[in-house]
Amino acid sequence: MDGTADPNIQVMFQTILSLMEKSQQDVAELRQECAELRAANTSLEHQVREGLQHNNNNNHRSSGFITPVPSSPQLRSRSPFLSPSTPVSVPAFPSSHAHHPSPLGDNVLSSFPFVVSRDIPGFYVVIPAGGAGTRLWPLSREGHPKFLLDLTLKGRSLIQATWDRLLPLASPSRTTIVAGPSHVKTIHEQLPDLVADNLFCEPGPKDSMAAIGLAAAILAHRDPNAVIGSFAADHMISGDDAFLSAVAEAVVVAQKDYLVTIGIAPSHPSTGFGYIRLGDKLPIDEAPNARLVSSFKEKPDARTAAAYIATGKYRWNAGMFVTKATFLLELLKEYKPELHDGLQKIGQVWDNDKERQKVLEEVWPELEKIPIDNAVAEPAAAEGRVAVVPATFGWDDVGDFSSLADLIPAEANQPRVLGDNSLVLTEQVAGGIVVPGSGRLISCLGVDDLVIVDMPDTLLVTTRARSQEVKRLVKKAKDAGWKHLL
């Protein structure tokens, strides 16, 4: 032996050392990302708690809320369910309402220059109110979905909050809702100022393209110069100034013949949302934050989502679209001509009661069921016809019980309670969310991060980590013959 190391062994050690160094670097980066996310989530939770604390202090206790029939929940205090007898107080927006500038997108000094009134002439609000919210079952049901519920116990349902938020821009005369027949009565009860002719009842669910396209076809017939903005009925938004400014800026861009979406600044690498890749800035003086959409991305895995956020070039896709009604129909004619032709037939006769039903029965069943993203947004983005206004307001689609829990304040290491706190007893329990919907006592000992939804007719128990999968239980319940509980 001459003491000289085998070259192969040296190479092997060098390889091992480099792998160890890379592994340590990856771990350090992940720790840094986790630390940043924890800080961001702590800050957000603090803001939400402060915003809701005053309201919670004024709530009264009750024995819980009762849902004898899932399709017609009854009101009790501190309940997510609202009834027609609930006092409806829509905030007034006088013409002298002052605008307070808020940060907006990448240009933090730019907000839309409202002069006196926020009303935008020729702008029509479209609120698609569909879906059953299956990931919030059994709280949300087909007959009474999440947009009709007061999920923060503020006294207003999600659709009422959406109405309140958008009213300054369009007034009741230009605010429209697209909904299914089973929800028309309750929507009118919750929104007494809604003009009857502005509730467009679709015979059956055909996804977002048919719903928004229906509104576009009707409004284009009523007003060929209409600019429409579509905003889901079941999303939560904080920071109304920033929201209204972003919408107003989107209207300016839409008038230049673009399909405009509003991009939400991501607070964490979510795998539950689609993403928008920002393209080049648009040379529009009145819209300093607007950019082209480079591409739309489907819901990514965790590593891909983290990579998106690290670039700073991505925004969450919240499904908000602003465009001329006629331009949307032009895109639809190009990419989905059959769907376009069918919706046009309906739109032309909509305001004729006798003709409407006949054409609906003939045309609606044959319409393609497809989301607006797949139908027009993605192909139009590839041709440079889609723009985005990056915005900074808080947004949540309240997609499952885990995200709902984040919106409800709680004491440190205690579960969130949606309902009467006196009906929930805990010992050595951290995190999670409890919905005491049956009126009976719920006791928890030594369990963390559980989701417990106790309704008069059914009980759900899962974990926050698995709450996205609740819709699988809904399918199983349907297959097993429990459709009356859905």
From TrEMBL:
<feature type="domain" description="Nucleotidyl transferase">
    <location>
        <begin position="126"/>
        <end position="410"/>
    </location>
</feature>
<dbReference type="InterPro" id="IPR029044">
    <property type="entry name" value="Nucleotide-diphossugar_trans"/>
</dbReference>
<feature type="compositionally biased region" description="Polar residues">
    <location>
        <begin position="53"/>
        <end position="65"/>
    </location>
</feature>
<feature type="region of interest" description="Disordered">
    <location>
        <begin position="53"/>
        <end position="101"/>
    </location>
</feature>
<dbReference type="InterPro" id="IPR051161">
    <property type="entry name" value="Mannose-6P_isomerase_type2"/>
</dbReference>
<dbReference type="GO" id="GO:0009298">
    <property type="term" value="P:GDP-mannose biosynthetic process"/>
</dbReference>
<feature type="domain" description="MannoseP isomerase/GMP-like beta-helix">
    <location>
        <begin position="432"/>
        <end position="476"/>
    </location>
</feature>
<dbReference type="InterPro" id="IPR049577">
    <property type="entry name" value="GMPP_N"/>
</dbReference>
<dbReference type="InterPro" id="IPR054566">
    <property type="entry name" value="ManC/GMP-like_b-helix"/>
</dbReference>
<keyword id="KW-0548">Nucleotidyltransferase</keyword>
<protein>
    <submittedName>
        <fullName>Mannose-1-phosphate guanylyltransferase</fullName>
    </submittedName>
</protein>
<dbReference type="InterPro" id="IPR005835">
    <property type="entry name" value="NTP_transferase_dom"/>
</dbReference>
<feature type="compositionally biased region" description="Polar residues">
    <location>
        <begin position="72"/>
        <end position="88"/>
    </location>
</feature>
<dbReference type="GO" id="GO:0004475">
    <property type="term" value="F:mannose-1-phosphate guanylyltransferase (GTP) activity"/>
</dbReference>
<keyword id="KW-0175">Coiled coil</keyword>
<dbReference type="Pfam" id="PF00483">
    <property type="entry name" value="NTP_transferase"/>
</dbReference>
<feature type="coiled-coil region">
    <location>
        <begin position="20"/>
        <end position="47"/>
    </location>
</feature>
<keyword id="KW-0808">Transferase</keyword>
<dbReference type="Pfam" id="PF22640">
    <property type="entry name" value="ManC_GMP_beta-helix"/>
</dbReference>
